[in-house]
Amino acid sequence: MKIRSIWILSAGHLITDVNQGALPAMLPFFISAYDLSYTAAAGIVFAANLASSIVQPLFGYTADRFSSPWMLSIGLILAGGGIGLTGLCENYQLILVLAVTSGIGIAAYHPEAARLVNYEAGNQKNAAMSIFGVGGTIGFAIGPFLITTALIHWNLNGTIILILPVSVMAILLTIQYPKLQSISRKHQLRNYGSSGQAVNDDWWAFIRLTFVIIGRSIIFYGLNTFIPIYWITYLHQSKMMGSIALTTFAASGIIGNLIGGSLADKYGPKKVLLLGFSGLAVLLPIFCLVNSALISLLLMLPIGLILYASYSPSIVLGQNYLPNRIGLSSGITLGVAISIGGAATPIIGKIADIYGVWSGIATTACLPMLVLLLATRLPNPQLDGISKTT
Questions:
Q1: What is the number of other CB atoms lying within 10 angstroms of the CB of residue 263?
Q2: For 246, what's the count of Cα atoms within 13 Å in the CB-facing half-sphere?
Q3: How does 141-158 read in b/e, with b if 16+ C-beta sit within 10 Å?
Q4: CATH topology of domain 3-375
Q5: DSSP assignment, residue 159?
Q6: How do residues 87-118 score in pLDDT, each as one tens digit?
Q7: pTM of the full structure
Q8: In a designed cystine with 49, which of 230, 288, 303, 342 is the match (CB 3.0 to 4.6 A)?
């Protein structure tokens, strides 16, 4: 495993996902400033994820055909620039346009970066992808705290701070462009020189995995979007406490991501998925029954840990199912499947509008058992040199 390249790509993932993590934490400020409904506020998250959902497979397909590390820097600029300008706008429609711009940038970064991580990982693909995932997890953890602090000090104009980190990281990746392009060329040469038996793509297994990832994504976005609002309106805490709860949820995923990757290399990605959804099926209903802000905050730790533990195994499993289309697989599992899950956020928001935020969270808590049943039907990938399977 070429650790240096993987950490560079992970750092870019961190900066990209700062913007994804910041967006839900911005919703209470938008609601307060513009008197938005929960549905309209959730629609901002929906717009960003819809854009990512539509274009990310195209970026993945392009990555499989052409070496395009330059797309990493462009993706970063769009991701941070879009969200960073939202606070300067008072028009809801323009905020949606900027959210879409950010979604396109996020879509540009992920499949190319995940493809390069796969190439550099050797036989430790789950561990390498977990390092890549940790970058995104840290970004999600930093994002809410960073943007909430900025907005408290500078009001909505504080969103402009998000443009700074993406600009710096884009420059660093541009400097690394020759190295990243070399990774792709070396992989292509190895493929051309291989005399081993070709491995077929298992599309049916990949489709089933996609539905599992969609289910996981609905759970993730249901929590990630409404945790700050839940803390403020149901638990009667401050906006900062809502941000701390969201940061705790994401920060616990740092450990979960690393544990999930290590366990998947040892025992197989499917077992990690089954273990994770089993845990969520127990913990999320308990979370809904708790009225204490302190206990709820403590529950965020195991919930975030086991939810994020399924991240890298699901991505690597998809790459194993489509070994000839790693970029496309990454584009779908990191983009379309996750974004479709995010598209369900306005539905949860509508439930929250009608029945209260608790009902929206409770709806999310009902999903892990269904996803667990879907995950049990996943086959074991039959590839040489991959990690153990169940």
A1: 22
A2: 40
A3: bbbbbbbbebbeeeebeb
A4: Growth Hormone; Chain: A; (1.20.1250)
A5: G
A6: 898 889 999 999 999 989 988 898 888 888 88
A7: 0.73
A8: 342
